[in-house]
Give the backbone structure.
Amino acid sequence: MYDVSMVLISQDSTLASVVQEVVARTPGIRLERVQDHDEACDRVASQGAALVLSHLTPGGPVAGLTRLLSTLEATGRGVPVLVLSDEYHAKQALALHRLGVADYLSRPLDLGRLGYLIDILTLARRRGAARPESVAPIPQPQMAVIPGDESFLFLAGGRMGEMIEQIRRVAPQDTTILLGGETGSGKTRLAGVIHRLSPRRDKPLLTVNCGALAANLIESEMFGHVKGAFTGADTNRIGKFTEVGRGTLFLDEIDSLPPVLQAKLLRAVEDRVFEPVGSNKTQPLQARLISASNRPLDQEVASGRFRADLYYRLNVVAFNLPPLRERVEGIPHLATSFLAEFGRRTGRLGLTIAPEALRALEAHSWPGNIRELRNVIERAVALSDGPSIQLEDLPDAFRDPGPTITLKLEPPPSQSTLAASKDEVERVQITAALVRNGNNRLRAAAELGISRMTLYKKLHKFGLIAS
């Protein structure tokens, strides 16, 4: 039986009991309680730990926590620290995140989320204690801290730090927000995060999918209708704009909204009023608006398919989520999170990902982004029968090496310009690197000292990818 330890720094017996109950649900962990950060430093230095939980009281000093973080960083132990605060303070959460805290929770504690974080933050240590020879070397995640949201890992990878700080600053305000990005990149999740970080968190979050319904149905879905407004309107109906009250209204696929409804939405956004279909009675719009588009709205405006005045009203603050193929370093964290989620659902705690399977995930282009990755992991968990997800548990596309690239050994034709000669040298070097690495783009890019996306663009430039 393998076992790893977790250290709780707290003088609160009630909190210690609650944490112990949560820890008991994750096999392979023992909880040790200490009274202060100095004692925790000594404990971790002498015996190690998989995770440290630090309890912060109102007005309590944070010098001990700062000293602990510095000590852990200086010793290179890589032990994650999770803060449990009696009160939530946004500035404190941000400051601690910058110091290296893995996440920040406040009372009343969300025990489900606490259990999730304990599971995911100790997973690598528990794997190492159980099967050190077979576990994929997944690093401790440098997580985007979104207090109050258990789905924060969807922001893993890439240079997301600036966006995360902007989200924290904007979420508590009533600013209208526009979200962009490809299908499956996390726009709906981000809308949920913004809502939960706002003062409206105890009010409804309602979604109108503008691309899923016909024009007349979208209008009724948004604004409601009165009896007799159109054929089939046998009763009055309350629309989402009324039902949401003072909550948050998420308008998804706003780029699909028909022109006639764009005009009606513009009035609602500008004047904060609307009328149900078939009614002359004006109703107030009290909700905060968050919109999302799968296509760049500025291009839709340029093409004449979207109203410029509505675009400028919706685009007060914009966040564009990059596709997963541009955030490859976040794939191990996301995959591990989804693996823990589906492992808990199926009663198979401790599932791991074989190194070969993880490399295949990193090499995939992910046209469906995070949604596709989640579905792939769910499928793999359903099909696998061992303690680790293997390459054969992934769909066939992940076992296909991709388009064959043949290295031409004949000398290149005479070039007339220096730029053309440089391109030919790059083409030969890239082709040779791919051949040496069995056509694995991730390893070839590492050998060439460039990013995978840079390699991908050059493959297109030199015509090395089949259409």
About this structure: The chain has four domains: 4-143, 159-320, 324-398, 404-467. The mean pLDDT is 81. The domain at 159-320 is CATH 3.40.50.300 (Rossmann fold).
